[in-house]
């Protein structure tokens, strides 16, 4: 829901920009300026010729149009700051009549600002500040987008995509686009050095070398083992290309508006020779990058990123969510100012301060506006320097055991022991699709759908914590609001895919059978405390390690590559070694069925009555887990697959229906109506 609302605001900005495009189009611009309304509101000073008058009036109208959208989003950002969740959510997502009326009122006010008020003089400096902020936001958003695509490529390679052909095509396109961005960036730099590299432009050459050097340095140090581990080459080329492309683009922007003939690329395809507010290649590229960054921000619905993850050694307080809305509207406000600066080609106003008789004080535009030069040069350097500083900070301060888990959103081992009497703190990570409406209470309860979404997606908005106390790993209990369901989410290293530095595994069925044996034959206490008992942590670790070993042994013997093992296959291969007495009939079940006896809930209720301790392997969509229960006691579900940005999962509940509903939420893959199988196993 929230993603759609954000896209509505983004579409509004696109339509606003489109309106300015139409106003500035040849033929339409002249007719628009001759309309009665424009003539009644705006006039030119008598000293200007007709062409200059037309450019100046277009410039002034653009400023008033974007003052409206800038002020509108700034007011929303300010109003949404107070921490009243219900009111804030209602105002942000609804109240459209009130917001449209407010927009209309601001528009009328902007049109009737007196021309002789020096409004443009003051607002032009505000626009420069807002534009520089947005350029930095845009840099980090585009880097995050590239990192997200790279992470997706790595994840698909680890899992092995079912649609191999389409995946290979997308992978080739990703690599081609990466090299295309690099080629365009380096080609543009070469063109500048050939066209505008003279003895008088030595500072240009130094500036170019510094920017390119910083870009390649930032790319090189991101390969440090504390920043990336097991990263695929394809996952790194695109972020590198984006860093270089964005840096070169802002550098070109700075060079096209500087003073000095021959050094400012006048008359080239990168800049206009004559002052004009018409759209050209530079503005199209700038607005394309801008809207790509904003759309990504709308769709990812997260409050964290790869770049901010570099600083995530500090605790994040998620109970104050006010900035989720306010920060978005502040981003839109700065984006509006950046759009205005782009459409006006970063021109500065020339003011006639001595005319008292004319209605207008604006008499011309200057292309080599000093404040714009300073801002663009600064903002071409600042994002890169911040990015490099973040990476160096992460390398110097992050615990070596954390490595890239901080950056990828994984669970984190904290080397500090909690103070006596203090609760174990949690670390927060974020997801491209997690719901921003998850409010974390003091006991960190989560709603069923919310926590299901957190575990289902590729990265979680809340990473369920693990800590090291001395040499012991602590895994904390998380409860689902308004249900009897609670669960323990292991760190990423404790799951079948990544245990012991592994990179992918199909051993889930073997591991599920091993967990079933340990539960049925061992003397395990029910996990009911805030911290998971060490015996359960050891059980998971040993079963995952042994399960992967046995699976690899089968693969090596059969020499068939990665294969999926059913319960019957596991019993056939390891039945004697694991002392399996009997495997019950496989029962086809589904989460949703018109026939009650064919549901997971019904069959679990039936099976739990037969033995004091029971284990039932559950398989759906080639994923195996195991239900564990005492007769008339709580029901457990153990799964060794990685969930969200963390690792394996242990879910507990005294109510079968509530547990099944929760599993239906987090295991939703193709369809809830698809058949799974329950296979009782006895030792």
Structure, described:
- It is a multi-pass membrane protein.
- Belongs to the TDE1 family.
- It is found in: Membrane.
- Pfam families: Serinc.
- The protein is an alpha+beta fold and 683 residues long.
- Among the domains are: 1-115 and 277-312 and 321-344, no CATH class; 477-682, Alpha-Beta Complex (Cathepsin B, Chain A), CATH 3.90.70.120.
- It has 21 helices and 14 strands.
- The chain has helices at residues 2-24, 28-33, 36-41, 50-79, 85-93, 96-111, 119-159, 164-195, 202-221, 234-256, 281-300, 306-309, 323-343, 370-397, 405-408, 448-456, 508-521, 534-558, 567-574, 600-607, 656-666; strands spanning 348-351, 362-366, 445-446, 466-469, 472-475, 477-480, 486-489, 582-583, 587-589, 613-620, 623-630, 635-639, 649-653, 676-682.
- Strands 3, 6, 7, 8, 9, 10, 11, 12, 13 and 14 form a 10-stranded mixed β-sheet that branches. A two-stranded antiparallel ribbon has the order 1-2. Strands 4-5 form a two-stranded antiparallel ribbon.
- Helix 7 (119-159) packs across helix 13 and helix 9 packs parallel to helix 14.
- 41% of the residues are buried.
* Percent of residues in beta strands: 5-15%
Overall radius of gyration: 30 Å
Point out poorly predicted stretches: 313-323, 399-450, 456-465, 467-471
> What characterizes the major β-sheet?
10 strands, mixed
Structural class: alpha+beta
Report the end-to-end length measured between terminal Cα atoms.
Answer: 48 Å
Helix percentage: 40-55%
Look up the CATH topology of the domain at 477-682: Cathepsin B, Chain A
Estimate the mean pLDDT confidence: 74
Count of DSSP helices?
21
**CATH class term of the domain at 477-682:** Alpha Beta
Main location: membrane
Pfam families: Serinc
Subcellular location: Membrane
Family: Belongs to the TDE1 family.
């Amino acid at each position: 829901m929230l993603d759609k609302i954000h896209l509505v605001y983004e579409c509004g900005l696109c339509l606003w920009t489109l309106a300015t495009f139409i106003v500035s189009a040849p033929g339409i611009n002249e007719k628009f300026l001759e309309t009665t309304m424009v003539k009644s509101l705006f006039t030119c000073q008598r000293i200007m010729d007709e062409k200059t008058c037309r450019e100046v009036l277009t410039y002034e109208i653009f400023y008033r149009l974007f003052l409206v959208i800038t002020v509108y989003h700034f007011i929303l950002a300010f109003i949404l700051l107070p921490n009243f969740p219900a009111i804030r959510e209602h105002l942000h997502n609804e109240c459209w009549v009130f917001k449209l009326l407010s927009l209309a009122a601001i528009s009328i006010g902007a049109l009737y600002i007196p021309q002789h008020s020096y409004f443009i003089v003051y607002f032009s400096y505000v626009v420069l500040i807002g534009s520089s902020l947005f350029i930095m936001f845009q840099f980090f958003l585009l880097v995050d987008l590239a990192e997200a695509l790279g992470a997706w490529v790595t994840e698909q390679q680890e899992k092995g995509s079912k649609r191999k052909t389409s995946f290979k095509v997308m992978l080739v396109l990703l690599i081609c686009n990466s090299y295309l961005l690099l080629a365009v960036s380096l080609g543009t730099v070469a063109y500048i050095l050939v066209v505008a590299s003279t003895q008088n432009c030595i500072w240009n050459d130094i500036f170019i070398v510094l920017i390119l050097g910083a870009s390649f340095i930032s790319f090189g140090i991101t390969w440090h083992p504390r920043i990336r581990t097991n990263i695929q080459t394809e996952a790194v080329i695109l972020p590198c290309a984006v860093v270089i492309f964005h840096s070169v683009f802002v550098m070109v922007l700075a060079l096209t508006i500087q003073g000095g003939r021959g050094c400012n690329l006048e008359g080239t395809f990168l800049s206009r020779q004559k002052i004009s507010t018409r759209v050209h290649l530079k503005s199209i590229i700038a607005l394309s990058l801008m809207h790509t960054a904003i759309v990504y921000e709308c769709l990812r619905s997260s409050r964290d990123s790869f770049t901010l993850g570099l600083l995530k050694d500090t605790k994040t307080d998620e109970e104050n969510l006010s900035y989720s809305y306010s920060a978005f509207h502040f981003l839109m406000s700065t984006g509006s100012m950046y759009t205005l600066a782009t459409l006006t080609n970063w021109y500065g106003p020339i003011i006639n301060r001595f005319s008292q008789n004319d209605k207008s004080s604006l008499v011309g535009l200057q292309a080599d506006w000093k404040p714009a030069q300073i801002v663009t040069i600064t903002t071409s350097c600042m994002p890169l320097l911040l990015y490099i500083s973040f990476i160096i900070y992460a390398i110097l301060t992050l615990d070596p055991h954390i490595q890239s888990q901080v950056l990828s959103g994984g669970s984190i081992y904290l080397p500090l022991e909690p103070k006596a009497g203090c609760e174990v703190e949690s670390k927060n990570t974020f997801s491209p699709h997690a719901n921003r409406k998850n409010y974390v209470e003091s006991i960190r309860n989560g709603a069923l759908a919310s926590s299901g979404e957190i575990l289902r997606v590729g990265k979680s908005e809340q990473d369920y914590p693990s800590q090291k106390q001395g040499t012991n790993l602590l895994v904390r209990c998380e409860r689902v609001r308004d249900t009897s369901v609670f669960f323990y989410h292991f760190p990423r290293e404790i799951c079948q895919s990544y245990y012991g530095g592994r990179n992918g595994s199909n051993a889930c069925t073997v591991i599920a059978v091993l967990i079933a044996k340990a539960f049925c034959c061992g003397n395990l206490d029910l996990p009911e405390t805030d911290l998971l008992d060490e015996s359960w942590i050891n059980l998971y670790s040993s079963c995952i390690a042994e399960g992967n070993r046995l699976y690899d042994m089968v693969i090596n013997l059969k020499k068939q590559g990665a294969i999926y093992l059913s319960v019957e296959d596991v019993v056939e291969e390891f039945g004697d070694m694991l002392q399996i007495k009997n495997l019950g009939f496989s029962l086809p079940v589904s989460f949703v069925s018109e026939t009650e006896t064919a549901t997971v809930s019904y069959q679990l209720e039936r099976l739990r009555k037969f033995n004091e301790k029971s284990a039932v392997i559950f398989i759906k969509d080639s994923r195996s887990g195991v239900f564990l229960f005492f007769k008339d006691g709580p029901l457990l579900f153990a799964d060794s697959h990685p969930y969200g940005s963390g690792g394996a999962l242990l879910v507990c509940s005294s109510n079968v229906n509530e547990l099944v509903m929760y599993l239906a939420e987090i295991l939703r893959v193709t369809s809830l109506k698809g058949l799974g199988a329950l296979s009782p196993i006895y030792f």
